[in-house]
């Protein structure tokens, strides 16, 4: 019987991992199934563009996986049972239920926008962490007349990119951004001055030192009682996991966005019975094996990893590459007995788009502190466009330039944790 490998999620980490494994493991011994809620590879880094009204090139997963032998299941993961080694899926528009069994699981379901426990976020705020969510925000923006107000809550990379993209693509709308600290405080002086010039050029109003205490239908309320009114509120305050809860009882009216947030969010790793960190990410050893269930591996936003500098790896596309390489290397080593070189977990900086023709690339030192210099303007925008395009291409060509070798299963397969946590 073939060894069944199931990959949950086909974002940057999941899709790359699946294609890499398929091109490295012999099909006589291994069967690889990918489960993804969308039929396309979604470029999460560009979802703020989709929300702003731009069209993105479709990338069907059937084409991405063509010739690899990967089995694609387009369905939403509703539960993972790590004891029974099964994954429960919602199919046929959510009406059907199916289960997939696995011998080895790669958990790469990613994350959603964190609500940080702020009341009203799920009911009243939009976000751009998933394609359906970005399309819902786009539809709402289409309803607004000239002068309509959009409020972006948060001051991180997602919030900055969403605010500038919306302001550039929809100049008839008024865009505000509210953040609990200082905008771009982690940037170097040159980069921060450039960021503020971009916000001034787009006419974005920034409200600093205004932590949001609750969100209502038409306003976000700060801790000091200030109400920031808006026709559409966009949550951009970091990634995380929503608390898993049952949907409303049949016949019970639900707030307009509650079901959208819930249905689009991946299941919490903790709800699957996996050992997790305080922020909900999966606790793993240095080879990205779950410390509680060593036949489960994790990559992307789902996994907690310390970088080479000793600091937690951020939830970002930049983390998808190293974590997927480390996870696939461990899977290949455990299942085939071949020794694979360890993966380095370095982090060189933050790349931020400021609309289509402007951007920033802030380099950081070994302690993740901003270096004095930064690439700015059109050149930074062009570099980011190239990086995003290369990342999408690499998903379907993970072994480009390498010998075409496929490994058979080892006579005795192992699933042993290394004993040291990442």
How are the secondary structure elements laid out?
Blueprint: E1 3-8, H1 12-24, E2 30-36, H2 47-52, H3 61-64, E3 71-74, E4 76-81, E5 86-91, E6 96-101, E7 104-107, E8 112-113, H4 121-124, E9 125-126, H5 131-143, E10 149-153, H6 157-169, E11 174-178, H7 189-202, E12 205-207, E13 212-216, E14 219-222, E15 227-229, E16 232-235, E17 239-240, H8 258-264, E18 282-283, E19 296-298, E20 303-304, H9 317-336, E21 349-353, E22 359-364, E23 370-376, H10 378-396
Parallel strand pairs: 1-2, 1-7, 2-3, 7-19, 9-16, 10-11, 10-16, 11-12, 18-20
Antiparallel strand pairs: 4-5, 5-6, 8-17, 13-14, 14-15, 21-22, 22-23
Describe the biggest sheet?
5 strands, parallel
Instruction: Tell me, briefly, the overall form.
Output: globular
Q: Which range best describes the helical content: under 10%, 10-25%, 25-40%, 40-55%, 55-70% or over 70%?
A: 25-40%
- Cα separation of the termini: 33 Å
- Which spans have pLDDT < 50 for at least 5 consecutive residues? 242-256, 258-263, 416-422
Helix/strand structural class:
alpha/beta
Q: Mean pLDDT, rounded to whole units?
A: 87
Number of strands: 23
Strand content: 15-25%
Please list the strands of the largest sheet in the order they lie side by side.
3-2-1-7-19
**Helix count from the secondary structure assignment:** 10
The radius of gyration over CA amounts to 22 Å
């Amino acid at each position: 019987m073939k060894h069944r490998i199931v990959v949950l999620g086909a974002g940057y980490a999941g899709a790359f991992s699946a294609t890499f494994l398929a091109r490295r493991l012999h099909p006589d011994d291994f069967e690889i199934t990918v489960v993804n809620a969308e039929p396309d590879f979604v470029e999460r880094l560009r979802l703020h563009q989709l929300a702003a009204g731009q069209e993105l090139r479709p990338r069907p997963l059937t084409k991405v996986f063509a010739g690899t032998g990967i089995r694609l299941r387009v369905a939403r993961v509703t539960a993972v049972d790590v004891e029974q080694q099964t994954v429960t899926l919602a199919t046929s528009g959510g009406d059907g239920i199916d289960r997939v069994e696995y011998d080895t699981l790669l958990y790469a379901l990613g994350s959603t926008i964190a609500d940080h426990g702020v009341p009203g976020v799920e009911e009243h705020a939009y976000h751009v962490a998933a394609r359906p969510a970005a399309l819902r925000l786009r539809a709402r923006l289409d309803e607004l007349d000239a002068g309509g107000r959009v409020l972006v809550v948060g001051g991180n990379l997602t919030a900055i990119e969403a605010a500038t993209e919306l302001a550039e693509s929809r100049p008839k709308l008024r865009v505000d951004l509210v953040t609990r600290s200082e905008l771009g405080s982690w940037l170097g002086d040159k980069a921060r001055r450039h960021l503020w010039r971009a916000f001034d050029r787009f006419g974005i109003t920034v409200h600093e030192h205004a932590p949001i205490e609750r969100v209502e239908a038409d306003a976000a309320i700060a801790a000091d009682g200030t109400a920031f009114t808006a026709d559409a509120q966009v949550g951009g305050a970091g990634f995380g996991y929503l608390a898993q809860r049952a949907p409303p009882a049949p016949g019970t009216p639900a707030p307009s966005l509650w079901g959208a947030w819930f249905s689009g969010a991946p299941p919490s790793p903790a709800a699957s019975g996996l050992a997790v960190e305080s922020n909900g990410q999966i606790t793993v050893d240095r080879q990205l094996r779950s410390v509680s269930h060593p036949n489960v591996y994790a990559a992307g936003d789902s996994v907690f990893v310390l970088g080479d500098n000793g600091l937690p790896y951020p939830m970002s596309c930049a983390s998808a590459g190293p974590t997927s390489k480390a996870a696939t290397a461990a899977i290949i080593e455990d299942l085939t007995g071949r020794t694979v070189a360890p993966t380095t977990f370095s982090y060189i900086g933050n790349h931020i788009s400021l609309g289509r023709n402007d951007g920033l690339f802030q380099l950081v030192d070994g302690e993740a502190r901003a270096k004095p210099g930064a690439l700015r303007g059109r050149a930074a925008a062009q570099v980011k466009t190239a990086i995003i395009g290369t990342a999408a291409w690499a998903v379907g060509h993970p072994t480009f330039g390498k010998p075409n070798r496929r490994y058979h299963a080892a006579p005795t397969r192992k699933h042993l944790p290394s004993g040291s946590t990442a």
